[in-house]
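Bench notes, afternoon.
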Amino acid sequence: MKRGFKFLFINILLLFLSLFLSGCLFIPHTTEVAPAIRGQIVDECSGKVICGAEITYTIKAENQYS
């Protein structure tokens, strides 16, 4: 019975090792690129707030295929 347990243990260990080395992690992980930005958009001439204005910012990855 010891030999069967050892064989099973080694196989499970190899499975987890291969998943870890391939990048498949069981814990959730994220990378924060930049913190949230909050503010108001104002008209340059009048200084009034422009309601409903939206700003989008796109970052192109360096290794992105075109």
